[in-house]
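Course assignment 3, question 2. Fill in each field.
Student: A.L.
Task: Predict the tertiary structure for the chain below.
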Amino acid sequence: MILADKRIVITGGTGSLGKTLTRRILSGELGTPKKVIIFSRDEAKQHDIRISYLSKSVVTDEVIYRNFMSILEMRIGDIRDYANVCSVVKDADIVFNAASLKQVPTCEYFPVQALQTNCIGAYNIARAIEENDYPVETVVGISTDKACKPVSVMGMTKSIQERIFIAANIMSPKTRFTCVRYGNVLASRGSVIPLFLDQIRNGGPVTITVPEMTRFLLSLDEAVDTIFAAVRHADSGDIYVPGAPSTTVLTLAQALIGDRKIDTVVTGIRPGEKMHEIMVSEDEVNRCFKNGDYYTIRPMLPELRREGDLLGPCLQKEFSSADVVLGYEDAVALLKKHNLLI
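Answer field:
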């Protein structure tokens, strides 16, 4: 049980992924941790999480007033601030870096802010471990398919985050740095499905950027499954990628609308968006291997290579959201599976 008796830090732990990751860790499925620390800037969201756990036996009923004495601990701090990061990382065994600016158009308008959170934040974690020789066992960086062949600021900064963590293995060899990369998370905050559902509840119209645009889809729990797979099996410098399905934006909207008489309106592509997302690029194919339900991308740095890395890829071309696209019935089945139809 790899998380048993571990001190775990989740940066950006108040986000959609962070909350699901916290719930799954506290469930004990990978062992009961000694401590789970949610590190973020938002005290209101932290308080909401405290309240949500008051009636759950996994943490003490006094969680609000005994913050540092509970399994689940809230820590106010900023991933951009090196001293803040040092204070939370110094006693950690495992760090999940979910802190992120992830809205694509927002990052286009405020690229320096994206740089500071997505890149400098990751660097602060790597720097803290290297300069202070903190005994952190594992760091998992949460990335995105937009980091692969990036065209947006969000994707570019996430791509650099991947490289920061991969290179950190060389300077801090006692710590295992790895990443996970996945596509759109169904119903996560700021994603398209909550927008579509809200538009449907209000009678429409449903706004579609480009009907033929495709996106990978997976649930929050499937995203956490990918993170847990990396924690259990990844080697230093690996990037774990799930074999996720994809669909067009139009098919997704139609599946959510169903039999309702609701119009759709095409609004055009937004700043920084791609028509199709890529999980594994053609340049990464030669370093990509099948690992159960996941693809593993090995690092390009020769210091991190292992025997067998160049024996042959499992993919013959890049892994694109345009490769195998779900039709209407399959999209409906996927949404039903995750209780997303209204």
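Instructor remarks: The longest helix spans residues 111-132. Confidence is low (pLDDT under 50) at residues 59-64.
Grade: pending
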